[in-house]
Each structure stands twice: as C-alpha cells, then as structure tokens.
Amino acid sequence: MKKTILITLAVGGALAFLLAILLFLGPYHTANWDTEPVRINIPQGCTYDDLRDTLDAHEVVIRKTPAAIVFDLEARAVGLTKHVRPGSYLVPRNMKMHAFVRKLRNGQQDPLRLTIGKFRTPQQLNEYLNTKLMHNDFHIPLDSFHLVLQDTYEFYWTVTPEQFMQRMEKESAAFWQQTEAPLSTRDIVVLASIVEEETNNNAEKPLIASVYLNRLQHGMPLQADPTVKYAVGDFTLRRILHKHLATDSPFNTYLHTGLPPAPICLPSKATIKAVLNAPKTDYIYFCASEKMDGTHRFASTLAEHQRNANAFHAALNKHGIR
C-alpha cells in the first residue's frame, strides 16, 4: 500500500512539475507558422469562447492540443476566462504561454501604424478609419477636415473617434505652432489642397501657390481646375470642358471668388510648406506644359498665358485626349 501511495505521489508530482514547466516555460507554436508575428484583433464584447475561436482561426492556440489545455488552465488562473479586454495584439512566434495570457488579460495592446494619405473628402477618410480601427462610427465633419495632416501615425486599434480627433488637433497645433502666415491655418490648408491636386512636381508647388496668392490679393477668381473636378465629383477628368465649368457648387472657383469652403483633399506637409514659402512673383496665370511632362508654363500677362494655353490644348488634341 505504501509503495502504491509513493508511486502515485511520484507520478502526481512529476505531472505537476511538467505542468508547471508548460505553464511558465513552455512556448506555444504551430507547425506552419512563419517568423512574422501574428496580429489578432479582439473586439468589444468578445467572450472567452470568441477569443478561443479567434486564436484557433489564426492558428495561434489550436483547440484540442496540449498548448490549448495549457492556455485554458493559465487563463482560468488569471481571470481571463471571465473578462476579455478588447484590443489588437501582436503575437511573436514561440512566445511563452504565461506571458501571452497575461498580455491578453492586461490588455497590453500593440499599436497600429495608420497612414493618412491624400483623402479628398471626409467621407473617404471616415470609411478608411472604419475599416482599420475597432470603432465603425467615425464621422469627421467637413469643418474639421483641415485639422487632419497627412502622415503615418501610431494608434491603438480601440481608439475612439473622439480620441482620434483629439490627437489630430494636437498634431495640427504642434505643426502650426511656429508658423507665421498672412492667411489663417484653415485657408492655408485649403489653398495647399488645391496645389496638391494641381501637380506632383514638388519643385513647382511654391510657384503655383504664388499664382493663387496673387489672384487672391487682386480679388480675382482662382479658376483652379482641381476645384471643378471636385465640384463635378470626377477626379479622373483630364480635360475640363465648358459644361464642367458651369457646375453649380461652392467649390467651383470659376463661379465663386475666394477659396472653397473646405480642402478638396488632405495636402501633404511638404505642400503646406510650399504655400507658406511661396516666393513673391508677378505670375497671375499658369498652364500645363505642352510637353505633358508634369511641368507648367507661368505667365504674368493674359496674352502670354493664352499662347501657353493654346500650345497645351493643341497637345491634348494631338494625343486624342477629350
């Protein structure tokens, strides 16, 4: 009897020791997992069963395996089975089981890198954020659109729309803190958005900005083709026709003097700086070059501009662009 008891105790002790090793030292892994970390997203209201389904689907902790048994035991021990925190988590290969469980239990998220590009409307930006982040109720209004700067940011997946805009306001304030300009922050962003849509040629952006600043100073309509594309709602237009110029919209700068009521896209910081550093010129006009190489012809008189425009339209006709 004593021998049986001793054997039972020995076996039990060995199993307990083995379990302890699995819990605190043993890594989890899958046979076909590459070396890149796996990212798992746990939404608000996720139950423990939902969590286990997610881990199984991503082959992080596969059900009915020794690793799954260890995960469940550890999860119960730290209270993860009763409360699952939402978040986005990176799981490195061979992460120790106890460290992984505690990462989930503590909600130790890994931030996402979110790139804010040249979105043309708040709706486009909202749709992008709704697909990238946990919350799907982003609704950035038109009058706040100019606060958002192109850049790559780190956010937690669970960031709320309010927290996102608070961050954008801080980023905007920091960017404009040392800026001295004759126009308001909003007007500079609106003008920069037009310049952004006019050209990809960074070297010419300050000159194009100078043309628009001169037109504003003289009370002339901007007559910016990108604003017509925005008003029409077709950003693929390669040739602006008279029917497009007649589009009734506050964004149509052929019909309305001054700046549009909001940016027609999110300009890059480089383009904003091009507006801020626009040189003093006497240019009132510019037109795409007949070389069709992305450069422009600048003019101080209408007669000179008309010659440039005629050459460009001849090039369009030659290439069959309607």
Order of helices and strands: HEHHEHEHEHHHHHHEEH
State the low-pLDDT regions, or none: none
Name the helicity range: 40-55%
Shape: elongated
Largest beta-sheet characterization: 2 strands, antiparallel
Average the pLDDT over all residues and give the rounded result: 89
Question: Could you please describe the fold and organization of this structure?
Answer:
- The structure is a single chain.
- With 322 residues, this protein is mainly α.
- It has 3 domains: 21-106, Endolytic murein transglycosylase (Dna Ligase, domain 1), CATH 3.30.1490; 112-176, no CATH class; 185-283, no CATH class.
- 46% of the residues lie in helices and 9% in strands.
- The protein is built from 12 helices and 6 strands.
- The strands form 3 sheets. The chain has a two-stranded antiparallel sheet.
- A hairpin with a 7-residue loop joins strand 5 (285-288) and strand 6.
- Helix 7 (185-198) packs across helix 8 (205-217).
- The longest helix is centred in the first third of the chain and has 23 residues, at 2-24.
- The protein is elongated, with a radius of gyration of 30 Å.
- The mean pLDDT is 89.
Provide the descriptors you would attach to this structure in a database record.
single chain; 322 residues; mainly alpha; Dna Ligase, domain 1; 3 domains; two-stranded antiparallel sheet; 6 strands; 9% strand; elongated
Question: How are the elements arranged and paired?
Answer:
Layout (H helix, E strand, L loop, with lengths): L1 H23 L13 E5 L5 H10 L8 H13 L8 E5 L5 H10 L5 E5 L5 H11 L18 E5 L5 H16 L8 H14 L6 H13 L7 H8 L9 H4 L23 H8 L8 E4 L7 E4 L2 H17 L4
Antiparallel strand pairs: 1-2, 3-4, 5-6
Helix pairs in contact: 3-4, 7-8, 7-11, 8-11
